[in-house]
Amino acid sequence: MTVRTGPPRRPGSPAAAGVFAIGMAGTTLPTPLYGLYRQQLGFSELTVTVVFATYALGVITVLFGAGNLSDATGRRPVLFTALGLSAASAGCFLFEGGLGLLLLGRVLSGFAAGLFSGAATAAVLELARPGRESRAGFAATAANMGGLGCGPLLAGLLAQYAPRPLALPFLVHLLLLAVAALVTWFLPETVAHPHRPRSLRPQGLVIPPAVRAVFAPAAVAAFAGFALLGLFTAIAPSFVAQTLGVHNLAVSGAVVCTVFLGSTLGQALTGRIGVRAALPAGCLILVVGLLLVGTSLATVSLPVLVAGALCGGIGQGLAFRAGLTAVSAAAPPEHRGGTLSAFFLVAYLGISLPVVGIGALTMALGLRGAGLAFAGCVIAVAVTVGGYVLRRPLPAHRPT
Fold this sequence. Notes:
The protein has 400 residues and is mainly α. It has helices spanning 13-28, 34-41, 45-66, 69-73, 75-95, 99-126, 133-161, 168-186, 209-234, 236-243, 249-273, 275-299, 302-330, 336-391. It holds the Pfam family MFS_1.
């Protein structure tokens, strides 16, 4: 009989990815429920996009003001703070106290996502065993997108087929957050000398000079891809219900989940085709997906919308993982958390600004017209950055 000696093995990269996924799932949990809130509170489509953008504003605020916090204090304290903010957000939705609490809940959810984005990604990468860095990189990006996709699917299923549709999804998420907190307690700290920052004032985000040439095209591609994600998480459920006449919340959640499923698939493909080819290929496939989304809006077709979600998600996933890999590889270790946070900041600008524009255009052009205008604008961005990286390819880093 072999007797093991030494301390028990502590959870590593897969466990950190699980925490990441649970945290991100809470940020999209309300997506299929907005229609119910509209009926209960009586607000417009513009208000829905403002509520959604409030979340993105919270993300951007944290990424800009505290995106590099985990580089100083350590990954675990930041993860615990993010989990606490997620729980507070769920509590706001459980009270169902009107538009004010919805906005507060979304802001808190944005704060949590902002902390998760840099700290959890860095933790997953740094906890990888030697030789498994590529697998850990996929785990980090898949946990991000997979968690975002599971949120609306879980909420849609519970809201459609279980009691208390505006409460049960958040109660289930609180239980998952408790499990994630327990796992985080046992995660090893990856920052060598964690310490309290000298000042609590926002430090902003500084992109190291060595990263800037890679950062610009990668971040713009992420902006375009996340704009597509914003369209589906903010507008797709309304389009499915109001234009297509499908009022099943599980279907709405599944449609939104499809774009994130495509993203995860695209990230998996990045490892096969390489970073240098993945970014322009991702932009091209993203354009095809947006053309399909535009066609679905013009022809009022659910199957074409699902096809556009899957295709656009694949393109977004290819470009996202390629950009994240290039930026992470170029960033010095002591600035990795802050640099990744800057990358996510640009990406979340893609979720917030275009989505609010759609909400405003909806008042004048209707849901279909606003969606078509949006698709045209994002296609222009994706074509521009795709053409740029074809002329100036990214370094041939191994996908992380």
